[in-house]
Design brief:
Elements (H helix, E strand, L loop, with lengths): L4 H4 L3 H22 L1 H9 L21 H6 L13 E7 L7 E6 H17 L7 E4 L7 H13 L2 E3 L6 H11 L3 E4 L1 H13 L11 E5 L5 H11 L2 E8 L4 E7 L7 E3 L4 E6 L13 E7 L10 E7 L1 E2 L11 E2 L4 E2 L4 E3 L2 E3 L1 H9 L4 E12 L2 E10 L1 H5 L2 H19 L4 E5 L14 E3 L4
Parallel strand pairs: 3-4, 3-5, 5-6, 6-7, 18-21, 19-20
Antiparallel strand pairs: 1-2, 7-8, 8-9, 9-14, 10-11, 11-12, 12-15, 13-14, 16-17, 18-19
Helix pairs in contact: 2-3, 5-6, 7-8, 8-9, 10-12
Bound molecules: 5'-O-[hydroxy(phenylacetyl)phosphoryl]adenosine.
Length: about 425
Amino acid sequence: MIWDQEFETLPRKDLEALQTKRLRETAERVYGAVPFYKKKFDEAGMRPGDIHSLKDLGHLPFTTKSDLRDYYPFGLFAVPMEQVVRIHASSGTTGKQTVVGYTRRDINTWAEVMARSLAAAGAQRTDMIHNAYGYGLFTGGLGIHYGAEKMGASVIPISGGNSKRQIIVMKDFGSTVLTCTPSYALFLAETAEEMGVDIRKLKLRVGIFGAEPWSEKMREEIERKLNIDAIDIFGLSEIIGPGVSIECIEAKRGLHIFEDHFIPEIIHPQTGKALPYGEKGELVFTTITKEAFPLIRYRTRDISVLYPEPCKCGRTHVRMERVSGRSDDMLIIRGVNVFPSQIESVLMNVEGVEPHYLLIVDRQGNLDTLEVQVEVNEKGFSDEVKELQVLGRRIEKDIKDLLGVTAVVKLVEPKTLQRSEGKAQRVVDKRKI
Ligand code: DLL
């Protein structure tokens, strides 16, 4: 179902005119209200009035995560605090938290894009939405929550954790839509199995998973284990939270970006040069309707591709390929760029192992080492030691063939790697310590 028929299917020409108008308005607002942007615009020799078409976006300055840290906590807010009704924050892997604010209208915009997202995933007002994203400073819980209420569905604000209770609630309340990180979905499947509950037979129909990278293979695994459609949702606190983009259930191919609110670009991560549709690079977003915390050309560090081909669902909004990793969680191992998601896709093609893994990067002398700890499943574990060795060598070979990097694979017993209720921690980089 399309939540907002008019805006989600706007002809491209009308959409671009709307984006240009909103971009100019946002530029005017930040130029007048945020000293950081006035300085940046002046340095770039640009005035908001110079914006006549979307092409002018390329002349505007970037905003980076370190700018956000420099102005911590509220220095980039564009409205006085009395207009701010909500604060969220996301913890980075390094340094200070990123703090974001919302006016009442921003909360409404967010609920709107989230209602669109839920509808795109096939949810309806009759659904029972089991929201296991964390509630709190993290945007996942409350973001989904407001969207679900806006839609008129029934939302269960269960948040993350207490997994056994999650299964009982799912069963007793008849949850039909599950929202959580993809890694937690798999953990819930395991928990159900341990409890002797056949999760496949519950009323769950759709899962809306995001907040961390996951692969096509992992989708298949989740769909099989939970007997649901698994949909990828993307977002980041800086831009609004979840609801920046989502796959439609019709195509499950690429995530539609709600372009009447967020203008996407792809740039070369090193040179900053804008890249054409179809080329892989770093995602950059400009918010064009936000009041409290508007951002111009925010560099996300997320790696993706944009493609404009029309979609069978009827939405005209451009699609982004699922995020394959971040330019800053990219590991460089002996000079080879490696994304954890690439290792994941190797593992998912191997029978007998689970999609639970941990990458341990270290240095011996001057040489980087990569250890991949992978859980085998019960069946794999019952095999002879010799067979396990063969399995380990095979994964090492696949990693070498596909990524060109040498890894030592260590198979570990089922359910020994730590599970996460939120974003999974996949990498321990000892080189930095
Ligand atoms: O993770 C918002 C969110 C909540 C999205 C719930 C989806 C569902 P942050 O904590 O600010 O916000 O983290 C944002 O997480 O820049 C990506 O690197 C990563 N990320 C989010 N969604 C996806 C996804 C929320 N579907 C950062 N696939 C982003 C891959 C994702 N990575």
